[in-house]
Design a protein that fits this description.
Layout: H1 4-20, H2 25-43, H3 49-69
Amino acid sequence: MIHLDYVSCALTVVSTILVGKRRWEGWMVAGANSVLICFIGLETAQIGFIPANTFCIVLYGLNARNWLRSPPAPPNAH
């Protein structure tokens, strides 16, 4: 049996690294993780996870859209 909590942990780490590297894909991985957490909440009857992570899914989608639409930052001149 796959431990979904371990999968969620790995997705959290990967999404955090990607967002830290300013990769929009990090928001998509975070969104997938939130979907997984909603599923875990349903399976374990911890329904409180669902509204919070639904909010996060919307927020991650908006963040990814904004990052894709914004022009790239100019390189730092030193």
